[in-house]
Amino acid sequence: MPMTDSRWLESPRRYTGQKTGNALVAWLNGGQKEMLSWSNDRQWKQRMLEELLQDATVVFGRLYKYSTHHDFYVASKGKKSSVRFWDCYERLNKMLLSFTQAPWINLNEFYEKNPIVWSVKDDSPAALVAPQIGWFIELIKQGVILRIRRCQECSKWYFARFNHQQFCGDLCRGKHHAHTETFRENRRKYMREYYQLKKSGKVK
Ligand SMILES: [Zn+2]
Asked: How far is the CA of 164 from the centre of ligand 1 (A)?
Protein backbone atom coordinates (compact mmCIF):
# COMPACT_ATOMS: atom_id res chain seq x y z
CA MET A 1 0.00 0.00 0.00
CA PRO A 2 1.41 3.40 -0.93
CA MET A 3 2.26 5.36 2.18
CA THR A 4 2.31 8.81 0.66
CA ASP A 5 -1.40 9.08 -0.22
CA SER A 6 -2.37 11.63 2.39
CA ARG A 7 0.65 13.78 1.62
CA TRP A 8 -0.25 13.97 -2.05
CA LEU A 9 -3.81 14.98 -1.23
CA GLU A 10 -2.83 18.12 0.66
CA SER A 11 -3.53 21.25 -1.33
CA PRO A 12 -0.16 21.23 -3.10
CA ARG A 13 -0.49 24.57 -4.86
CA ARG A 14 -0.83 26.61 -1.73
CA TYR A 15 1.73 24.63 0.16
CA THR A 16 4.28 24.89 -2.63
CA GLY A 17 3.60 28.59 -3.20
CA GLN A 18 4.28 29.48 0.40
CA LYS A 19 7.28 27.21 0.65
CA THR A 20 8.83 28.56 -2.54
CA GLY A 21 8.00 32.10 -1.50
CA ASN A 22 9.63 31.64 1.88
CA ALA A 23 12.72 30.15 0.28
CA LEU A 24 13.14 33.14 -2.03
CA VAL A 25 12.49 35.61 0.78
CA ALA A 26 14.99 33.86 3.05
CA TRP A 27 17.62 34.06 0.33
CA LEU A 28 16.89 37.74 -0.41
CA ASN A 29 17.13 38.64 3.28
CA GLY A 30 19.93 36.22 3.95
CA GLY A 31 22.94 38.37 3.32
CA GLN A 32 21.56 41.63 4.67
CA LYS A 33 23.39 41.57 7.97
CA GLU A 34 26.74 40.97 6.39
CA MET A 35 26.04 43.31 3.47
CA LEU A 36 29.48 44.93 3.74
CA SER A 37 31.33 41.67 3.36
CA TRP A 38 29.33 40.62 0.33
CA SER A 39 31.32 39.52 -2.64
CA ASN A 40 30.68 41.19 -5.98
CA ASP A 41 29.17 37.91 -7.02
CA ARG A 42 26.54 37.95 -4.28
CA GLN A 43 25.76 41.62 -4.94
CA TRP A 44 25.30 40.91 -8.62
CA LYS A 45 22.94 38.01 -7.89
CA GLN A 46 20.95 40.05 -5.40
CA ARG A 47 20.61 42.96 -7.81
CA MET A 48 19.52 40.69 -10.63
CA LEU A 49 16.80 39.08 -8.51
CA GLU A 50 15.63 42.42 -7.14
CA GLU A 51 15.36 43.85 -10.65
CA LEU A 52 13.40 40.83 -11.82
CA LEU A 53 11.04 41.20 -8.87
CA GLN A 54 10.58 44.93 -9.42
CA ASP A 55 9.66 44.40 -13.07
CA ALA A 56 7.41 41.45 -12.23
CA THR A 57 5.60 43.54 -9.60
CA VAL A 58 4.81 46.25 -12.16
CA VAL A 59 3.87 43.79 -14.91
CA PHE A 60 1.70 41.40 -12.87
CA GLY A 61 0.32 44.18 -10.69
CA ARG A 62 -1.24 45.49 -13.87
CA LEU A 63 -2.14 42.22 -15.59
CA TYR A 64 -4.14 40.92 -12.61
CA LYS A 65 -6.38 44.00 -12.73
CA TYR A 66 -8.10 42.66 -15.84
CA SER A 67 -9.75 39.35 -16.53
CA THR A 68 -9.32 39.23 -20.31
CA HIS A 69 -6.80 40.42 -22.88
CA HIS A 70 -9.54 42.56 -24.39
CA ASP A 71 -10.19 44.38 -21.09
CA PHE A 72 -6.48 44.94 -20.69
CA TYR A 73 -6.18 46.28 -24.23
CA VAL A 74 -9.11 48.68 -23.92
CA ALA A 75 -7.92 50.04 -20.57
CA SER A 76 -4.31 50.50 -21.67
CA LYS A 77 -4.74 51.89 -25.17
CA GLY A 78 -2.92 55.18 -25.62
CA LYS A 79 -2.51 55.71 -21.87
CA LYS A 80 0.63 57.50 -20.72
CA SER A 81 0.69 55.36 -17.60
CA SER A 82 1.32 52.36 -19.84
CA VAL A 83 4.86 53.45 -20.69
CA ARG A 84 6.27 52.08 -17.44
CA PHE A 85 4.38 48.82 -17.90
CA TRP A 86 5.79 48.27 -21.39
CA ASP A 87 9.32 49.13 -20.25
CA CYS A 88 9.14 46.57 -17.46
CA TYR A 89 7.39 44.03 -19.66
CA GLU A 90 10.11 44.24 -22.31
CA ARG A 91 12.99 44.13 -19.85
CA LEU A 92 11.47 41.18 -18.00
CA ASN A 93 10.86 39.22 -21.18
CA LYS A 94 14.33 39.96 -22.48
CA MET A 95 15.76 38.51 -19.28
CA LEU A 96 13.44 35.50 -19.24
CA LEU A 97 14.24 34.72 -22.87
CA SER A 98 17.95 34.58 -22.06
CA PHE A 99 17.41 31.60 -19.73
CA THR A 100 18.09 28.15 -21.03
CA GLN A 101 16.28 25.62 -18.91
CA ALA A 102 16.38 21.86 -18.98
CA PRO A 103 14.02 19.44 -17.23
CA TRP A 104 15.42 16.75 -14.96
CA ILE A 105 14.40 14.47 -12.12
CA ASN A 106 15.68 15.19 -8.64
CA LEU A 107 14.96 12.64 -5.88
CA ASN A 108 14.58 15.21 -3.14
CA GLU A 109 12.23 17.38 -5.22
CA PHE A 110 10.27 14.31 -6.32
CA TYR A 111 9.22 13.63 -2.74
CA GLU A 112 8.42 17.34 -2.36
CA LYS A 113 5.79 16.85 -5.10
CA ASN A 114 7.84 18.20 -7.96
CA PRO A 115 8.39 15.21 -10.27
CA ILE A 116 10.17 17.40 -12.80
CA VAL A 117 12.60 20.14 -11.91
CA TRP A 118 13.64 22.83 -14.37
CA SER A 119 17.25 23.73 -14.12
CA VAL A 120 18.98 26.72 -15.67
CA LYS A 121 21.78 25.50 -17.92
CA ASP A 122 25.39 26.59 -17.57
CA ASP A 123 25.42 28.56 -20.81
CA SER A 124 22.67 30.87 -19.60
CA PRO A 125 23.72 34.15 -17.96
CA ALA A 126 21.33 33.27 -15.15
CA ALA A 127 23.04 29.97 -14.31
CA LEU A 128 24.66 31.54 -11.25
CA VAL A 129 21.28 32.19 -9.69
CA ALA A 130 19.66 29.03 -10.98
CA PRO A 131 17.67 27.99 -7.88
CA GLN A 132 16.47 31.53 -7.19
CA ILE A 133 15.39 31.98 -10.82
CA GLY A 134 13.59 28.64 -10.59
CA TRP A 135 11.64 29.85 -7.54
CA PHE A 136 10.88 33.16 -9.25
CA ILE A 137 9.40 31.40 -12.29
CA GLU A 138 7.53 28.93 -10.10
CA LEU A 139 5.91 31.79 -8.16
CA ILE A 140 4.80 33.44 -11.40
CA LYS A 141 3.29 30.15 -12.58
CA GLN A 142 1.45 29.70 -9.30
CA GLY A 143 0.06 33.23 -9.54
CA VAL A 144 1.62 34.38 -6.26
CA ILE A 145 4.55 36.50 -7.45
CA LEU A 146 2.88 39.67 -6.12
CA ARG A 147 3.04 38.14 -2.65
CA ILE A 148 6.81 38.66 -2.60
CA ARG A 149 7.05 42.14 -1.11
CA ARG A 150 9.30 44.51 0.72
CA CYS A 151 8.26 45.75 4.15
CA GLN A 152 7.42 49.48 4.09
CA GLU A 153 8.90 49.86 7.55
CA CYS A 154 12.11 47.81 7.72
CA SER A 155 12.51 47.04 3.96
CA LYS A 156 12.98 43.34 4.65
CA TRP A 157 11.52 40.97 2.04
CA TYR A 158 8.51 38.85 3.05
CA PHE A 159 5.93 36.52 1.56
CA ALA A 160 2.49 38.04 2.17
CA ARG A 161 0.01 35.55 3.59
CA PHE A 162 -2.86 37.91 2.80
CA ASN A 163 -3.33 40.16 -0.17
CA HIS A 164 -3.71 43.33 1.88
CA GLN A 165 -0.57 42.70 3.98
CA GLN A 166 1.87 45.63 3.74
CA PHE A 167 4.37 44.84 6.48
CA CYS A 168 6.58 41.90 7.35
CA GLY A 169 4.84 41.47 10.70
CA ASP A 170 2.86 43.00 13.56
CA LEU A 171 5.89 44.77 14.99
CA CYS A 172 6.53 46.78 11.81
CA ARG A 173 2.82 47.45 11.31
CA GLY A 174 2.64 48.88 14.84
CA LYS A 175 5.74 51.02 14.31
CA HIS A 176 4.38 52.40 11.05
CA HIS A 177 1.06 53.35 12.61
CA ALA A 178 2.88 55.01 15.49
CA HIS A 179 4.84 57.18 12.99
CA THR A 180 1.64 58.04 11.19
CA GLU A 181 -0.02 59.00 14.46
CA THR A 182 2.91 61.21 15.50
CA PHE A 183 2.86 62.87 12.08
CA ARG A 184 -0.87 63.55 12.31
CA GLU A 185 -0.54 64.86 15.84
CA ASN A 186 2.29 67.24 14.82
CA ARG A 187 0.28 68.49 11.89
CA ARG A 188 -2.76 69.14 14.09
CA LYS A 189 -0.56 71.06 16.50
CA TYR A 190 0.99 73.10 13.69
CA MET A 191 -2.40 73.97 12.19
CA ARG A 192 -3.75 74.99 15.59
CA GLU A 193 -0.79 77.33 16.14
CA TYR A 194 -1.07 78.65 12.61
CA TYR A 195 -4.74 79.57 13.00
CA GLN A 196 -4.05 81.23 16.34
CA LEU A 197 -1.31 83.34 14.74
CA LYS A 198 -3.61 84.19 11.87
CA LYS A 199 -6.38 85.23 14.22
CA SER A 200 -3.99 87.45 16.12
CA GLY A 201 -3.01 89.11 12.83
CA LYS A 202 0.66 88.11 13.06
CA VAL A 203 0.49 86.21 9.76
CA LYS A 204 -1.68 86.90 6.75
ZN1 LIG B 1 9.30 45.00 8.59
From this structure: 15
